[in-house]
Amino acid sequence: MPPRAASSPSHALSPVLPALRRRFLGALLGTALGLGLTFGGALPSTAQAAEIRVVTSGGFSAAYDQLVPLYEQATGHKVTTARGASMGTAPDSIPSRMARGEQFDVVILADSALDQLIAQGKVQAGSRVDLARSMIGMSVRKGTPAPDISTVDALRQTLLNAKSVAYSASASGTYLSTELFQRLGVAEQMKGKATKIYSERVGAVVLRGDAEIGFQQVSELLPFKELQFVGALPDEVQQRVFFSAGVATGSPDPEAARHLIRFLAAPAAAAIVRSTGMEPATRAEPAAAPARAEPAAPAAPARKEPAPAL
């Protein structure tokens, strides 16, 4: 029997939400209530509540950690979460977990990596839903001079001047190490001072002083309040990556998995997604998503009204 995914309960919902979040809490809960109609017209009872197992990469984690407690509160479902990089061969990376046969219902990672899992038959074809787009940024320790990366030439010089550079072993780091460094003409200089970081946030490495500058998805750098976020890469060399969700092949409850994915992609979630440094995806649902009849009137208001901005 394939091993069960190692997972941990999602973060509990804080009893006192900041005032700005309260403004659209109702919209999010209304979205979950509306989606609950797909299960027969009412929220599930304790006996009907599902356990939804998710594995997610770090790029979407900041938004995910805020949205999932709201979903659990509104639906009664329990979401358990495992985490790993979108790419790479680290033991806890999502490709490695799937290769070992760990069992999940929902998989969230960079779009190209999700497409590979679909091609391998590990995620259901037609189940992909884009959740958000992410950009790559750079951080340094507070109290140190902030390098200039506002232009391509300034970014090149910053890389040449840096004594040590850290980058992710996942999607952003793959782009830096296989494309950007070569494009900037600094690949040789990076060999001796750039380090790929496995199974750890780049921000943690910079915070310890093990690297002078660090690159990762903006949404993964912003939570490190002890660091100075310098900014995103210049538009000319920026990589915008969709973080997408799909239903794992063999999920015992694919309908519950699709239900959670629709909630994460709902327009009412856009304000929280945007607050984490990501851009909400423009596509909310896959063309091939299975359809179920549901009453239109109760769910429509929560799905159509835009969430108030933070």
Keywords:
single chain; 310 residues; alpha/beta; 7-stranded mixed β-sheet; 5-stranded mixed β-sheet; 36% helix
* Major sheet description: 7 strands, mixed
Derived structural class: alpha/beta
Unreliable spans: 1-17, 36-47, 283-310
DSSP strand content: 15-25%
Gyration radius (Cα, Å) is: 20 Å
Shape: globular
Strands of the widest sheet, in order across it, are 1-3-2-4-11-5-12
Task: Report, as a whole number of angstroms, the end-to-end distance.
Answer: 46 Å
What is the string of SSEs from the N terminus onward?
Answer: EHEHEHEHEEHEHHEHEHEEHHEH
The number of distinct helices, counting runs of at least 4 residues, comes to 12
Instruction: Work out the helicity level.
Output: 25-40%
The average pLDDT score comes to 83
Number of strands: 12
Summarize the structure.
Helix content is 36%, strand content 19%.
Descriptive overview:
By secondary structure, this protein is an alpha/beta fold. The chain has twelve helices and twelve strands. Helix 1 (19-36) crosses helix 2 and helix 1 runs antiparallel to helix 12. The longest helix is centred in the first third of the chain and has 18 residues, at 19-36. The protein is globular and about 60 Å long.
SSE blueprint and pairings:
Layout (H helix, E strand, L loop, with lengths): L7 E2 L9 H18 L14 E6 L4 H15 L2 E6 L10 H6 L6 E5 H9 L9 E6 L1 E6 L10 H10 L3 E4 L2 H14 L2 H4 L3 E4 L4 H7 L4 E5 H4 L5 E6 L8 E7 L6 H11 L5 H6 L3 E2 L15 H9 L6
Parallel strand pairs: 2-3, 2-4, 7-8, 7-9
Antiparallel strand pairs: 1-3, 4-11, 5-11, 5-12, 6-9, 6-10
